[in-house]
Write a structure and sequence with these properties.
Number of domains: 1
Number of helices: 5
Number of strands: 0
Shape: globular
Distance between the termini: 27 Å
Helix content: 55-70%
Structural class: mainly alpha
Length: 118
Amino acid sequence: MNWYVEVLKKYAVFNGRARRKEYWMFTLFSVIVSIVLAAVDAAIGIQALQPIYVIAVLLPTLAVAVRRLHDTNRSGWWIFIGLVPLVGFIVMLVFLVSEGNPGDNKYGANPKGPLAHF
């Protein structure tokens, strides 16, 4: 839950770096919330809660993805590779699961700290 809140605190921060754990924990929690809200929507017969949630977390989702790309020393513009059918999804997935640079890069300091490579 802490990782989710940390991403929301950086609602529209597209600079800096994000660890794999930060990205994937946010994604996991967001998917769980989305599924629960979709179930609630189905139970009460309206389709409003889940779409509102998706729209509300769209910007932080994009921001944390860009920061994750920065951690792998890639420009945030690489996020658009995901628009290429099938291949783009696979390439983006590889980028998102890749380990970040162990040291500082042009996007900032290592989010794991200075002793992360030991």
